[in-house]
Design a protein that fits this description.
15 strands; binds 2-oxoglutaric acid; single chain; alpha+beta; 24% strand; three-stranded antiparallel sheet
Length: 287
């Protein structure tokens, strides 16, 4: 087992749907990742950087308003970002927490918050509802790239939602798609988070900490209310582990790839488009 992973951390993942691994990344790593993200955002804001369509990778999405930057799918377009992740031991940390024997990085999101507008809050959702996948090994590895105190837009989660037997029809679902019978309405998800007895946990973090979030865990963020200048940056990388299979989801907008031609129902995702970057072996065995 990786030395930063304890049984208590694994139990937290299984019980409440989030594992907090303090100090998973060094400050040098955090500084390097922040620089890459800053360069991309500066270029996108100035119009000097463009990420055009890609043969296999999904489009880069960039939203920038009300003090909230949402930048999706940068990971596979920026080799330096890829190298930073591959040359550290985060895949092993996540694998040990979720109990996977292989790991493949999938899609990423950067969530940067500046100012104190109410819009700096991320709305309640879970990630799984948009995935055309079955299995549990598709967590988010959310990295705090700044300190994230209570007034700096920490993540909040509905404890235990990771154990939901059902899925939800996302508010971003494809229009008009007929959901399978085990999908529940989105309003139910929102009602659960607003219930007086909802077990809501708030996850403050230090720069370099990671939160490993189960794909079913219902989560959101508080708004940024910090009086000081500065910002809050979370970088979230979704991983695919051993138990994930392709499962057609008529409501899903998120294909793992730009083209679905290579995906086969009930089968693991093909390695030629989503390589396995970490495997359990005798050096990193969990026993
Ligand atoms: O950092 C945030 O505010 C949102 C992160 C998030 O919702 C996610 O990674 O799915």
């Amino acid at each position: 087992m990786h030395p930063k992973v304890t049984q208590e951390i694994i139990d937290s993942y299984n019980e409440v749907g989030v594992a907090h691994v303090p100090g998973a990344f060094s400050i040098e790593w955090v500084t390097g990742m922040t620089k890459i993200i800053d360069e991309a955002i500066t270029g996108l804001r100035a119009g000097t950087t463009e990420f055009g369509p890609h043969q296999t990778q999904r489009d880069v999405e960039f939203e920038d308003h009300d003090g909230y930057v949402r930048l999706i799918n940068l990971y596979n377009r920026v080799p330096e970002m890829n190298a930073l992740v591959e040359n550290c031991d985060c895949a092993e940390i996540v694998a040990d927490v979720i109990g996977s024997d292989i790991m493949r990085p999938w899609m990423d999101g950067t969530f940067m918050k500046e100012g104190v507008a109410a819009e700096t809050a991320t709305p309640w959702h879970n990630d799984e509802c948009l995935f055309p996948l079955s299995g549990h090994h598709s967590p988010s590895m959310w990295v705090a790239l700044t300190d994230v105190s209570r007034d700096n837009a920490p993540l909040k989660t509905l404890a235990g939602s990771n154990k939901d037997p059902h899925r939800y029809v996302s508010s971003w679902a494809l229009d008009g798609a007929e959901a399978p019978p085990n999908f529940h309405p989105w309003d139910e998800l929102l009602e659960r988070t607003a219930a007086p007895d909802a077990d809501i946990r708030v996850w403050e973090a230090k720069a370099g900490d990671i939160l490993i979030i189960h794909p079913k865990t219902i989560h959101a963020s508080l708004p940024r209310t910090a009086g000081q200048s500065g910002r809050r940056i979370g970088f979230s990388l979704r991983w695919i582990g051993s138990d994930i299979r392709y499962e057609f989801n008529p409501t899903a907008k998120l294909s793992p790839f730009q083209s679905s031609a290579l995906l086969k129902e009930g089968e693991p995702l093909p390695e030629e488009v989503m390589p396995i970057t970490w495997r359990r072996n005798s050096d990193n065995a969990t026993a």
